[in-house]
Design goal:
The complex is a heterodimer of chains A (about 270) and B (about 300). With about 270 residues, chain A is of the alpha/beta class. Chain A has eleven helices and ten strands. In chain A, a hairpin with a 2-residue loop joins strand 9 and strand 10. In chain A, helix 4 crosses helix 5, helix 4 packs parallel to helix 7 and helix 5 packs across helix 7. Chain A is globular. Chain A starts with 9 loop residues before the first helix and ends in a 5-residue tail after the last helix. Chain B is an all-alpha fold. Chain B is built from 13 helices and two strands; from the N terminus they run H-H-H-E-E-H-H-H-H-H-H-H-H-H-H. The relative contact order of chain B is 0.14. Classes of the chains: A alpha/beta (about 270), B mainly alpha (about 300).
Chain lengths: ~270, ~300
Amino acid sequence: MTTIITKKPIIETVSNQPSKKAVYETKQLNLWYGSNHALKNIDLEIMENEVTAIIGPSGCGKSTYIKTLNRMVELVTSVKTSGEILYRGRNIFDQDYGVEELRTRVGMVFQKPNPFPKSIYDNVAYGPRIHGIKNKKILDEIVEKSLRGAAIWDEVKDRLNENAYSISGGQQQRICIARALAIEPDVILMDEPTSALDPISTLKVEELVQELKKDYSIIIVTHNMQQAARISDKTAFFLNGEVVEFDHTDTIFSNPSDKRTEDYISGRFG
Amino acid sequence: MRPSVQDMIAQSKGKKNKQMIEKIIPIILFLIASVSVLTSIGIVMTLIVETVTFFTRVPFLDFIFGTTWLPFSNKEAQFGILPLIVGTLKVTLIAVIVAVPIGISAAIYLSEYASENIRRVVKPILEVLAGVPTIVYGFFALTFVTPVLQAMFPEIKIFNAISPGIVVGIMIIPMIASLSEDAMSSVPKSIREGALAMGSTKFEVAWKITVPAALSGIIASVVLAVSRAIGETMIVSLAAGSTPRFDGDFTGSIQTMTAYIVQVSKGDAGYGTTIYYSIYAVGFTLFVFTMAMNILAGYVSKRFREEY
């Protein structure tokens, strides 16, 4: 039953072999919520300008993992970690690694659209502003570029001063993507970005992800396997806090090496 | 064998009683609820009737634009309310200067920084402040704050606007802090996370996201607190003095609208004298002020609501 999944053009998987560098190297990462061992000995290498999908059943640790990459997971008190995550060669758990600095380089899009209760313009300009960009002309330019980048400029260009909550959920999610793009991050983390969206909005976001990977490295958590197959270059399958298999998406979906991966992607559980 | 449950239900007399009760209950509840509404109407009516009588003796314009309040003069009593309004505003102004920054800072701390445990302990304590009887605050102003102020600034008299202003401010801090904290806590966590994920510091999230999002609630809390300060009576009666004056001096004795009403009520102004009616006119003015503030609070919380 694995053949129903759309195949990606071969060229892409071939071209991504040689010169690419790793953005994230996760080494022996363990994470506990209190006494609950949520991530176990994770080893993953995430390459730049690729879309890496993380799939797995609910509670497998996929959201926890992506939130660890920008240390948002630390908002939960009682979180403990061991091991290391190197971002561009530097361990993000280092004492002197400022969490704000990390999050300025690594943007995030959440499960439910969470625009600020401000105008569309102010939402997108928020990031540049807090990081010290005040010039109105430059801000205008950044806002337009980000909204274009998130494929929503044409829909909102005449209503930039309206509250971001006055537009539809799918549009809000693309505003959130534009907001993340506005500080021109290196990596974009997406935590089930389409789970609260209708099919048409989902399609738009998926197309957008394809577009964005030219300039950004994208890590996307999804519970939708077809989505992972459609948009990602590599896929990691998480189960019970462990990485069962991590490989090219084509391989995972057509020729998985682990029985559990095969069972999951063929819909036998999860 | 016993009859079926459906038969027992059909035979039971409870049904009729239930219908009766259902008819009577709303009527009783309505009558009870009416009591408070009728009382309010009664109070306002009394105020209006006596105030109208007052204006048959003192011209309306003299009252609202007059700058001399000299009700006890035997020769030429004057009823210009501006000095009392100015007195009230002096105390309110100082109260606001004290309470708004402290109240909002406390709210930001409680909603954005304090751990769940700290909040659980601090918030009830803060609310206890709101339960201190105002007479206690009044003594606190007169016997503690005023001497301290006098030690620092000798030109301050025993009765002044600053000391009661500060204490009224302390009194309304819990109101601002508690209501503002409620408003800020109801800003969804997901919005804060969105801001943190952009590399914002905690303070940037508080100042640029949470406070603006909760602004309607914060402003409404301030307006309500100001309304409370305007109507505050005991503290100003004890510590502000009884000298109606139309000037900008905060260091000497003043008189507020509420303190005047107390002064007359506990004195021996005979029924039917102009002074007797004047307390209704002043009371009505006070009522207009606080009512305007309450309406403003309602308007503001609608107008500045940021949808989320």
